[in-house]
Write a structure and sequence with these properties.
The chain has 118 residues and is of the alpha+beta class. The chain has two domains: 73 residues; 32 residues. It is 60% helix and 13% strand. The chain contains six helices and three strands. A three-stranded antiparallel sheet has the order 1-3-2. A hairpin with a 2-residue loop joins strand 2 and strand 3. The longest helix is centred in the last third of the chain and has 29 residues. The two termini are 35 Å apart. The relative contact order is 0.14.
């Protein structure tokens, strides 16, 4: 499971203070969405609009937490310094596959041990 990471000093960071509590709610949900859908910190404008969050997105941009951008011609926002905190989505997927492979080997070994003891 991938997690959206938040620095333990974020509560007192000037950018967080400037953005405001409601905008930080949008920021947090968007971070979770980005990890779930492997967007590498890109938040599509339609996602913000679905949540009626334009004024909060504007506050995040003004605070320097998001940057307006487009990806593949799609307008949206990018988290500031996303890859300083989070692995790229392909690396996250690689780690997940390594975990699945470890689990397959572990289960096979347990089945082998159980079969030998019968």
């Amino acid at each position: 499971m991938a997690y959206f990471s938040v620095d333990d000093q974020f509560h007192s960071h000037p950018k967080a203070k400037r953005a405001g509590l409601a905008a930080l709610g949008l920021w947090t949900l968007a971070g979770s969405w980005c990890r779930a859908y492997k967007s590498d910190g890109f938040v599509p404008a339609w996602w913000v609009q679905e949540r009626r969050g334009q004024r909060h997105a504007d506050a995040l941009v003004a605070a320097g937490l998001w940057h307006p951008c487009s990806e593949g011609g799609e307008p949206g926002y990018r988290f500031h310094d996303w890859h300083d905190v989070h692995d790229a989505s392909d690396e996250t997927e690689r780690q997940r596959e390594l975990g699945r492979e470890r689990q397959r080997k572990r289960r096979a070994k347990l089945r082998e041990q159980l079969g030998a003891s019968l």
